[in-house]
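Run folding on both entries below.
>entry_1
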Amino acid sequence: MASAAEQLAANLNFGAFAKATELKNRIWFTLGALIIYRLGTYIPIPGIDPVVLREFFSQQQGGLLDVFNMFSGGALERMTIFALNVMPYISASIIMQLMTAVSPTLDQLKKEGESGRKKINQYTRYGTVALAAVQAYGLSVGLEGLSGPSGSAVIDPGMFFRVSTVITVVGGTMFLMWLGEQITARGVGNGISLIIFAGIVANLPPALVSTLELGRTSALPILLIIVLLVGAVAIITFIVFMERSQRRLIVQYPKRQAGNRMFGGESSHLPLKLNTAGVIPPIFASSLLLMPVTLTGFSQGGGPEWLTPVITLLSRGQPLYIALFAALIIFFCFFYTAIVFNPQDTADNLKKHGGFIPGIRPGNNTADHLDHVLTRLTVIGAGYLTLVCILPEILISQYALPFALGGTSLLIVVTVTMDTVAQIHSHLLAHQYEGLIKKSKLRGRRG
């Protein structure tokens, strides 16, 4: 008997894709939106000297600013209208999720269904505007203090430049937020994730060329480059395996009699992913580590004196940086998993529909069992994320490799690709089911 995967591959053939007009339109819309995003990463903020910026970022290569530049798809390095990318929106979303966990009012809104979700999304947008405005103003002040051998990075510093920069950058961030929502609604995949994905993928070819150039100039041994490329393939394979791994808990439904017929009695399963938190932990951990480094980097050491030794200790490859990065990833794995999966709610829903886990009493005992299983899975998931993000980080700091080849970037690329492909498969299956329903209706009319 063919496996489920083989059956799915047989069903999702090219002919089915060619007939799925709606899916093709969604894919074209997604590609068009991502092209617009990439074009926007080359539109500079008014009043910026690009030569000075290139000199500054060439001096900062290998630093934590490369992390933010990677998430922005190179827009930060070119100081364009999308310099902040969607990071303010991601930060606002995470803050709202944290507040939902501690605020009874927001928690009640979350349980109200579609209307509550719209209100929470509206609050998230307000938070995005506030965060983007603060970050944009700090960016403009930092740019005014930025100078290099060619002069100042800002042609005409002053309040007009600051206000125009805030308006331009906040407008760019809000446009990207809107574009991401449109991709989610009209395209294929999660729009915000695809925007970050597109920025990382755009930096992968230059990173690969830069790595090969290190080999050509004998800065890196050819054998080491081959080992690194094979290691990257191994990491991708490992990520795919771990992201598809799940623990399936058997859920049994009791039999019930209606008249002379028996109903129910079937069993199902409750899938629990090994990595419930997804790519949120490394992204948010990187964002927190970026804050002090970004401020002092743009101020050219003009910040508080106590920040200087802190920045030195937080340099990439340093033991403190690696320890903090690993600790933050582990923390956010547990914290975010606790937010997105509530064992008590799941246990209550199972009890409401008459389902139970064999050997476990419904109610609180089921919730405790789910919490116990999820905690053990999260330990493995946190270890997997830490390993994937930390090991390449050590190699990058040791051999000055481009950050686009790091574990965090590969993790985002692989997981977003898997999610997008899964959605395409879902659209194809839905299209096939619609075709079968139409055929059955036509046969019924003929009969």
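>entry_2
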Amino acid sequence: MQLATSYLPRELVRGTPITEVDTGPGGIYARLAELGHAPAHFTEEIRVRMPTPGEIEALSLSAGTPVLDVLRTALTDDRLAVELNEMTLDGSAYVLQYDFEA
């Protein structure tokens, strides 16, 4: 239903449990918090497109099913980017909901 890849600053995470296959309870955000770089703000860019042949296979998509590309950037209170997460979602399986203050 989803393909996802996270990119983190090498100088920040080198030699830490974040680089392990199993990052432990709470995942990479908990590990970033332990390093003093907890995510405090997220931005997302969302695009809808038709999938590549590899994505059709990996996600077992039916013909004509679009995918959602979501690029999420996690930022600290100081607006330091600590993660870029690139997600490709089966467009028929997700509803994205966002809340905004006026």
